[in-house]
Amino acid sequence: MCHKSRHFYPLNSTQLCLGGMNAYLYLKWCLCLYYPIETKINDLVDRIVYRLNQRRAALLNRYHELRDEKAARRSARIKKFEELVGIKADTERRLQINELQELQERILADIELKLAEVNAHQPETHIVFRNQSEHLEQLIAELGEVLEEEVPIIHNYQAMREVVAVVKRGTAHGELNDPRAVVIDYNTNRIFVTEGVPSLSGPQARISIFTDGGDYLDSFNHMDMHHPYGIAIHVDNVYVTDTRVHAVFLFKIETSYPLIAELGTRGSQIGQFNDPHNLAVSTNGDVYVTDYCNHRIQILNSSLQSIRNLTEQPIKYPRDIKLTADEVYVLCVDNPCILVLSHAGERLRSLVSMGRQRDVCDSHFFCIDSAKNIIISDYMFGKVKIFNKEGTLIHTIEIGRQDERLTYPLGLGQGLVLTKDLNLVLVYLHSDYCLRIFSCL
């Protein structure tokens, strides 16, 4: 049996069960089995920044090369002009003493012609340089507009305010029953939420879909899916992990959301899983899956084949994973709890400590903004904490209302993700509201 958490809280006497087991051990057993939490975020914004910066750097280098070439030509022209002026002055002095006057006059005439050529305007060179320079300046200006429009840099978490409080707990369509993870389809700005445990009187476990304003749109499920947990979207593919059947499902974003592929059984071999949590998809379509109880990250291709491990070195209970253009961030049950690796599996650094008296008490999911700030939900205390890329805490957000924090001591947060507009979308486990949206602008 796999232990999901290391933090336990005693209940009152009305919640005793399991025969002679006392309340403390019963809560410990319950927490170990039923409250693994996960999240996910897409890294599209980071990839845009990286590629546009590469293009801008290349353009600027070419611009500087052309400018240096123009300066070098001007310097050579000035040097030649000064040499000819010196020769002219020397010749004029010689004419004054009538030394070979006729020859000197011819030389002087030749020098005057050369001076005229050196001083003459060179239209072709000037026009070519001017046209190239103007073209480069236009491209750089357009690139600046793209960066300004597509990649907002300011993340004002201190001024965060709730803009939408929607989607109550329940089993009907448009309600959420035990929400787990949340992801944004950046092509349509739709919000996808996994619902973990099916109700005995309600529908099957499912994926519910909402607008970026929280309005219900649709839902889908599959008979083989019993406990959907993590979720990721790439192009028109939806990838979902299931912690009960220990598998990864691939659905197509179409009218009926058909099941395209399924991989996994319980086990420790390559292609098997033991409690798969969240997942992330790279720009080339590779799917990175946190294989929680096997202490590893498995990488699949877009059709759930061609499987390998990110690194052979164990990662202690990986819970969540996020990808940037050049790094892999893994949230695990270790200290520090954010492990940063290269895409080749090399360990680069570790950030953020986990524990009751540390940076976060208990975290199951996180996301990264375009400035590489790390946004983590402190599950036990219903808070969201923001750390900079060096791992320093820069802000704490109290998400739940005061009465909620008193009523639900086991925490409020579950999955979280940032939208293109820098709105923070959260789903809840212990709250009347199961989906809430906050503005970070």
UniProtKB/TrEMBL annotation:
GO MF terms, alphabetically ordered: ubiquitin protein ligase activity
Domain of life: Eukaryota
Keyword Repeat found: yes
Pfam families reported for this sequence: NHL (PF01436)
Gene3D superfamilies per the UniProt record, alphabetical: TolB, C-terminal domain
Keyword Nucleotidyltransferase listed: no
Annotated GO biological process: proteasome-mediated ubiquitin-dependent protein catabolic process; protein polyubiquitination
Keywords annotated in UniProt: Repeat
NHL repeat start and end residues: 263-303
Transmembrane segments: none
Name of the molecule in the record: Na-Ca exchanger/integrin-beta4 domain protein
Species the sequence originates in: Oopsacas minuta
